[in-house]
Amino acid sequence: MKYGIVKKGTFLKRPNRFIAHVELDGEEVICHVKNTGRCRELLQLGAAVFLEEAANPARKTKYDVIAVMKGQVLVNMDSQAPNKAVAEHLKAGKLDEFLGGHVTLVKPETVYGNSRFDLYVEVGERKIFIEVKGVTLETEGVAEFPDAPTERGLKHIRELAECGKDGYEGMIFFVIQMKGIRYFTPNDRTQPEFRKELRKAAKAGVRIAAFDCMVTEDELWMDQEIEVRL
Predict the structure, then answer these.
(1) Count helices and strands in the chain by DSSP H and E runs
(2) For 93, which DSSP code?
(3) 136: number of Cβ within 10 Å
(4) What's the chain's average pLDDT?
(5) Is-contact 79 41, C-beta < 8 A?
(6) CB 228 within 8 A of CB 208
(7) How much is the CA Rg of the chain, to the nearest whole Å?
(8) For 86-101, what is each residue's pLDDT tens digit?
(9) How far lies 115's CA from each of 111, 130, 153, 157, 162, in Å?
(10) Interatomic CA distance for residues 169 and 113, integer angstroms
(11) Whether the Cβ atoms of residue 164 and residue 135 lie closer than 8 Å to each other
(12) CA pair distance 53, 40, nearest whole angstrom
């Protein structure tokens, strides 16, 4: 996926989950943060951040924070980007081999049970619900999720584990919004229950996969499948 007009700034502070103060062209501007996670290891004072100019000039916050430099690694932190990247990959046939057949339908935001899943996909006669999780937390080349407790995430895992009873397949894609990752694993420091539910889901037939991404200042696209350690 590709962004519009992108500018480089310097992160100053984040008073709440939704906004950040950024120095841009010598001025302090208030920007919308497109990620409600903690992101404490990313949004550090003085970090280089990349801002997309809002399409609506009348909007209160003129820019969205979409990426940040963490050391020498550029990390996309737009929580909407992983869904778009997966959908693009599916529609382009780039996941046909992974899915074992040609994708004939891609439908976003589809309800099953009490959950709304990110994507509904058909591969021939197979019907698949896919939940997409964007991953920005990394420690020494290991990607982890979640960076904050997520009851919604647990609910989705449990629902996916049940969908096989009705003839559907369930999948979870952890989209790691950076390169340089050795493997993915659940974050026990934040929520040990998340790993337990993933293990139960895997035993119930839910396919769990992780992919890293190529990231530039104004683009993000899925790249290679990464090892998952549960």
Answers:
(1) 4, 15
(2) T
(3) 27
(4) 95
(5) no
(6) yes
(7) 18
(8) 999 999 999 999 999 9
(9) 6, 12, 10, 10, 11
(10) 14
(11) no
(12) 23
Q: Which of 98, 70, 74, 77 is nearest to 173 (CA)?
A: 98
Q: Is 196 strand, coil or helix?
A: helix
What is the value of pTM for the model shown?
0.94
Tell me how many degrees the CA angle 41-46-48 measures, rounded to the nearest 5: 80
Residue 225 pairs in a beta bridge with 211
Q: How far apart are CA 111 and CA 134, in angstroms?
A: 20
Domains of the chain: residue spans and CATH: 6-76 (2.40.50.580), 81-228 (3.40.1350.60)
- How many angstroms separate the CA atoms of 167 and 221, rounded? 31
* Other Cβ atoms closer than 10 A to 60: 9
Letter for the amino acid at 219? E
Q: What is the DSSP string of 137-193?
A: EEETTEEEE-SS--HHHHHHHHHHHHHGGGT-EEEEEEEESSS---EEEE-TTT-HH
Which two tokens mark 167? 């003839």
pLDDT at residue 177 is higher than 90 = yes
Token pair in block for residue 215: 């990231």
Token digits for 225? 């499948």
Look up residue 219 and give its two tokens. 């683009």
Q: What percent of the chain has pLDDT over 70?
A: 100
Q: Which helix (H) or strand (E) holds 194?
A: helix 192-203
